[in-house]
Structure to design on (347 residues):
């Protein structure tokens, strides 16, 4: 697998609604595999590789969580709102990039905790986003000339790699995009009528998925994600949903989604037959584009396959390379064998 592609994807900025830099990378790769590539009004990228068999839609979303400029005050401090779900606990003191007329590095600030009384209830509370600000270290007039309301704010790109693990921002869902593209390279002529979708605006309510599903009206859907791995100190074993190093997650349900059991069982069958590690997960939290894609149009059989990632929606996240490799191998095998899927055989 081409890890350099994953690095490019994670280093690119792409909050919801501003996915252009990520879309350009994906379009470059897909353009080398098919001539049928287009973008819709929401900003989602759709590629088709025509073929015989079921109409299969594979989706991975381009957007990452981040912030947006709400106000620049007279002192040059920048107030922001969140775009997507970010825990305020991860923000204070973090470095960010404000994408104004040019990228400006800033620091998320607040009233310093050592200025608060030891007895103050304020000292222990989580600072809400509306009390935070971004300081870019420029004179107020320079800030106002370079930054305007609505400009995106992202965590800066970072990359660290060893033999087994990777650290970077936005593995949710650049990991899913990477798995999709790498699997497609292995099986350039799949056994189906294939639609590859790099969707927009998943992190703000699965907004990009619906229009795509209505346009394509697929028979089968596979949503690829970077999902929460919570194999962490203090988490009881029955509350651990996915673990690093044990293969991709095949999700049967979450807070918004109930998977098609036969389609999911087909993935389990393919993995077991080939000795590909996987984890079957049932949970009632979170959500993916699978929830939207399965109910639009005339409806579709939907499954969700995810790479476990620690610390999603944070400035830096962590994954195991072996989980990426297993996910790519499984998706490639599915592309090759999808004609063999018969719902009644995998109930």
């Amino acid at each position: 697998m081409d890890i350099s592609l994953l690095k490019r994807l994670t280093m690119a900025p792409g909050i919801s609604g501003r996915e252009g830099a990520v879309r350009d990378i994906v379009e470059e790769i897909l353009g080398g595999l098919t001539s049928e590539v287009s973008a819709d009004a929401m900003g989602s990228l759709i590629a088709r590789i025509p073929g015989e068999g079921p109409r299969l839609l594979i989706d991975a979303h381009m957007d990452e969580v981040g912030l947006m400029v709400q106000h620049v005050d007279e002192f040059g401090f920048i107030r922001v709102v969140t775009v997507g779900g970010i825990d305020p606990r991860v923000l204070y003191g973090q470095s960010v990039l404000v994408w104004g007329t040019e990228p400006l590095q800033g620091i998320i600030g607040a009233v310093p905790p050592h200025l608060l009384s030891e007895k103050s209830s304020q000292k222990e509370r989580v600072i809400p986003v509306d009390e935070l600000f971004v300081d870019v270290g420029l004179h107020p007039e320079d800030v106002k000339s370079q930054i305007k309301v609505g400009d995106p704010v992202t965590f800066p790109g970072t990359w660290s790699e060893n033999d087994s693990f990777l650290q970077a921002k936005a593995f949710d869902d650049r990991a899913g995009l990477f798995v999709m593209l790498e699997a497609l390279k292995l099986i350039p002529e799949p056994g189906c009528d294939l639609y590859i979708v790099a969707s927009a605006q998943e992190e703000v309510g699965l907004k990009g998925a619906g229009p795509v599903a209505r346009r394509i009206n697929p028979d089968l859907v596979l949503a690829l994600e970077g999902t929460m791995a919570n194999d962490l100190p203090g988490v009881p074993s029955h509350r651990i949903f996915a673990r690093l190093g044990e293969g991709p997650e095949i999700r049967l349900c979450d807070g918004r989604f109930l998977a098609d059991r036969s389609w999911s069982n087909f993935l389990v069958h393919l993995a077991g037959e080939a000795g590909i590690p996987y984890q079957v997960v049932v949970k009632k939290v979170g959500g993916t584009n699978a929830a939207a894609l399965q109910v639009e149009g005339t409806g579709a059989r939907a499954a969700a396959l995810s790479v476990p990632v620690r610390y999603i929606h944070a400035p830096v996240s962590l994954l195991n390379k072996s989980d990426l490799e297993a996910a790519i191998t499984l998706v490639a095998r599915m592309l090759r064998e999808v004609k063999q899927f018969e719902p009644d055989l995998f109930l």
Remarks:
- Residues 66-152 form a domain with the Elongation Factor Tu (Ef-tu); domain 3 fold (CATH 2.40.30.40).
